[in-house]
């Protein structure tokens, strides 16, 4: 019975160390948008090449926000820093855009999910999915569903092709 008590402090110390040990930070980076007190990221995705894709929002002009995509290498060194806004016919159609979700697509491009708020209706937002190529050049975007308000919080790519955006949408009465 006495032999068990000799090992009890060692067992408690070992378990405490294992349970409360924190992993070591490999790197911490700060990425600059235009307005450091407003810019921010909402999602991160581990890319095929061991780098990372981050998405969020950045200020592009006074009271105008854009979807923001930053990609890095495995050490956090910035490779790409792009913002996306003005998805309407007119450059000033949308004043606030935000990306909540990012994935790397099978063609090495990126898909961002978020929302846009039109200038004339700042209290409403539009469910938005945006697709880029591997260099961050916009390929297409979708505002879905028509005549609705909403936000896209997550995106996935189907193995058979195509994308799915999940979030909230409220259909407007016609």
Strand order of the largest sheet: 1-2-3-4
Taking the sheet with the most strands, its summary is: 4 strands, antiparallel
Radius of gyration: 22 Å
Q: Kindly name the structural category.
A: mainly beta
Q: What gap, in angstroms, lies between the N and C termini? A: 80 Å
Helix percent reads: 10-25%
Order of helices and strands: HEEEEEEEEEE
Oligomer: single chain
Total strand segments = 10
Shape designation: elongated
Whole-number average pLDDT? 83
**What are the low-pLDDT stretches, counting only 5+ consecutive residues below 50?**
none
**How much strand?**
over 45%
List the total number of helices. Answer: 1
What does this structure look like?
The chain contains one helix and ten strands. The protein is mainly beta. A four-stranded antiparallel beta sheet has the order 1-2-3-4, with no helix packed on it. The protein is elongated and about 70 Å long. The protein starts with a helix and ends with a strand. The mean pLDDT is 83.
Provide the descriptors you would attach to this structure in a database record.
single chain; 174 residues; mainly beta; four-stranded antiparallel sheet; 1 helix; 10 strands; elongated
Write the layout of secondary structure elements.
Layout: H1 2-20, E1 40-46, E2 52-61, E3 64-72, E4 78-84, E5 94-104, E6 110-118, E7 126-132, E8 138-144, E9 148-157, E10 163-171
Antiparallel strand pairs: 1-2, 2-3, 3-4, 5-6, 6-7, 7-8, 9-10
């Amino acid at each position: 019975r006495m032999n068990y008590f000799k090992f009890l402090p060692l067992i408690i110390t070992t378990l405490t160390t294992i349970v409360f040990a924190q992993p070591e930070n490999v790197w911490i980076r700060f990425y600059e948008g235009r307005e450091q007190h407003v810019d921010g990221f909402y999602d991160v995705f581990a890319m095929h090449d061991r780098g990372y894709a981050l998405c969020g929002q950045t200020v592009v002009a006074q009271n105008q926000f854009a979807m923001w995509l930053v990609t890095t290498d495995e050490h956090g060194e910035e490779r790409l820093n792009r913002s996306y806004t003005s998805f309407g016919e007119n450059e000033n159609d949308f004043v606030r855009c935000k990306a909540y979700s990012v994935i790397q697509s099978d063609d090495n491009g990126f898909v961002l999910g978020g929302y846009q708020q039109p200038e004339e209706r700042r209290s409403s937002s539009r469910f938005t999915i945006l697709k880029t190529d591997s260099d961050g050049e916009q390929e297409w975007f979708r505002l879905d569903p028509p005549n609705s308000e909403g936000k896209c919080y997550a995106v996935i790519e189907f193995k058979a092709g195509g994308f799915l955006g999940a979030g909230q949408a409220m259909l407007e009465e016609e």
